[in-house]
UniProtKB/TrEMBL annotation:
Organism of provenance: Halopseudomonas laoshanensis
Lineage: Bacteria, Pseudomonadati, Pseudomonadota, Gammaproteobacteria, Pseudomonadales
UniProt gene name: greA
GO biological process, alphabetically ordered: DNA-templated transcription elongation; regulation of DNA-templated transcription elongation
UniProt name for this protein: Transcription elongation factor GreA
Residue ranges of domain Transcription elongation factor GreA/GreB C-terminal in the record: 83-156
GO molecular function, one term: DNA binding
Length: 158
C-alpha cells in the first residue's frame, strides 16, 4: 500500500479532530436520536431524520480520517538534520528575483495544503521546483503568467 507524506502537525490535527468526533459528536448525536425517537412517529420526525443524517456524515468523516492516518507517513522535520536543502515539511523563504518580494511556504501533503496560511502541496509546481535545491539557489517556476525566478533565502525546520 502506498504511504502518503504528512507533517507531524497535520497528523496531530487529524488525531485531534478524530478524538473530538468520537468523544463529543458521537455521544451528542446518539442522544439527539434517542430524544427524537421519544417524539413518536419516525416517518414525519424531522429531528430524527436530521440527527440520522448528521450521524452518517460524522461516521463517514471518522472513516476518512482513520484511512488518511492509516496511509500516512508522518514526517517530523524538526528531528531531521539541517542541510540547507529543501524537502517535504521544510519551510522555505524565497525572494522573487525581479520584484524582490519575499514569501515563506511550508511544503506539506496534499491534505494539509492551505495557501491562506502559506502551506503548499508537495505536488504543486512551486514545491516541485524547490525540492532538492539549497539556500542560495535560483529556481525557475513556470506560472500561468510565465516563468518566475526565485532565490532560496532560508530553509527552516519548524
Amino acid at each position: 500500500m502506498m504511504k502518503y507524506p504528512m507533517t507531524k502537525q497535520g497528523a496531530e490535527a487529524l488525531e485531534a479532530e478524530l478524538k473530538h468526533l468520537k468523544s463529543v459528536m458521537r455521544p451528542q448525536i446518539t442522544q439527539a436520536i434517542a430524544e427524537a425517537r421519544e417524539l413518536g412517529d419516525l416517518k414525519e420526525n424531522a429531528e430524527y431524520h436530521a440527527a440520522r443524517e448528521q450521524q452518517g456524515m460524522v461516521e463517514a468523516r471518522i472513516r476518512d480520517i482513520e484511512g488518511r492516518l492509516g496511509n500516512a507517513q508522518v514526517i517530523d522535520v524538526a528531528t531531521l538534520p539541517r542541510t540547507g536543502k529543501v524537502f517535504f515539511g521544510t519551510t522555505v523563504e524565497i525572494v522573487n528575483v525581479d520584484t524582490e518580494e519575499s514569501v515563506s511556504y511550508q511544503i506539506v501533503g496534499d491534505d494539509e495544503a492551505d495557501i491562506k496560511i502559506n502551506k503548499i502541496s508537495v505536488s504543486s509546481p512551486i514545491a516541485r521546483a524547490l525540492i532538492g535545491k539549497e539556500e542560495g539557489d535560483i529556481v525557475a517556476v513556470k506560472t500561468p503568467g510565465g516563468v518566475v525566478e526565485y532565490e532560496i533565502v532560508e530553509v527552516a525546520h519548524k
